Amino acid sequence: MTVLCVRFQLPPESEAALPGLLGLLEEFTPVVEALPPDGALADLRGAERYFGRSAVELASVIRVRALALHGVDCVIGAGPGPMLARVALRDARPGVTCAVPEDAVAEFLADRPVAALPGVGTATSRTLCEYGLDTLGRVAAAPLSTLQRLIGARAGRELHEKAAGVDRGRVVPNGVSRSLATERPFPLDELDPDRHRRALLSAAEELGARLRALDKVCGTLTLTVRYADRTATTRTRTLREPTAHSAALTRTAYGMYEALGLQRARVRALVLRAESLAPAEQASHQLTFDPVDEKVRRVEEAADRVRAKFGPGAVIPGALAA
User: Fold this and answer.
1) DSSP code string of 103-143
2) pTM to 2 decimals?
3) What is the pLDDT of residues 30-84, one digit of tens each?
4) How far is 155 from 45, CA to CA, in rounded Å?
5) How far is residue 102 from each of residues 23, 60, 135, 167, 184, measured CA to CA in Å?
6) DSSP secondary structure of 199-235
7) pLDDT given for residue 317 in this prediction
8) Biggest CA pair distance of the chain
9) For the segment 118-135, what is each residue's pLDDT rounded down to a tens digit?
10) How far is CA 291 from CA 245, 252, 288, 296, 298, in A?
């Protein structure tokens, strides 16, 4: 094993702890790639030689230190490369590291659904399943030309390689980008799309208010959907123009959610993250003659003044409806 994919089980509203947890990983290797809001990849090739321990053994040490120093448990997948480590993470549980056997990668992948591969979205998965290519083993056995006809030349070639266990990815060291995030967990696993949309509306309203309070705008919005089986889907979209306008954030969040095409998905939580933050005074704004848009912006300004005076929990009746 060489690469670990770690997902820290951060409680709601505790994403600020991620930089400290990344620092914990950097005590073992400088090659750490943050995967906001709660994960990271760590390349342990040098650490295995330095400490004289395997990546799986080092994963146990990391888990104990995260609990002892930060009070945070984690789930860890291990593999020869970052893609395989992320696939292994799907089967990992607290206290147990799931590792991809280096000498049996194809066998490890064979029975897994095609959607288990990072980067395979709902639409691609649906297309492949319609032709009986519902597992990675069947995708690996399919002719390359068939896959390229179904999903395109480049995507088909990459999928064929990944399904066969070829992992050409690498861990790219980075830092946690300056961002704001809010999470909407559900008391019970939620199936109702209307409740999902209401949670997204609430999250976008909160992000917009926080951005405006800091005189910031965001250029990118990321949606993470966490499911009942502990898996998650993350989508990122660049905004047409940097904004702190709640209505624009809500439209983008709805667009990402709809693009997932969730069918009776049991959703445990929704996380919305505003990234690529910049000072509001440096942002350009496309002029509009839409009176509805201007009305909503005036309502936002009034709501912000109310929150500043009476606290973040204050709400203007009918503000959300506007």
Assistant:
1) T-HHHHHHTSBGGGSTT--HHHHHHHHHTT--BHHHHHHS-
2) 0.61
3) 999 988 778 899 999 999 999 999 999 999 999 999 999 888 999 999 999 999 9
4) 29
5) 28, 19, 20, 12, 38
6) HHHHHHHHHHHHHHHTTEEEEEEEEEEEETTS-EEEE
7) 45
8) 67
9) 888 888 889 999 999 999
10) 15, 21, 8, 9, 11
Question: Strand, helix or coil at 4?
Answer: strand
Contact of 82 with 167, CB cutoff 8 Å: yes
Q: Can you give the pLDDT at residue 322?
A: 41
Token pair in block for residue 247: 């209505």
Closest CA to 202 of 226, 183, 189: 183
Q: How many residues does the chain have?
A: 322
User: What angle, 0 to 180 degrees and rounded to 10, lies between the N-to-C axes of helices 55-70 and 18-26?
Assistant: 140
Kindly tell me the number of DSSP H helices and DSSP E strands found in the chain. Answer: 12, 9
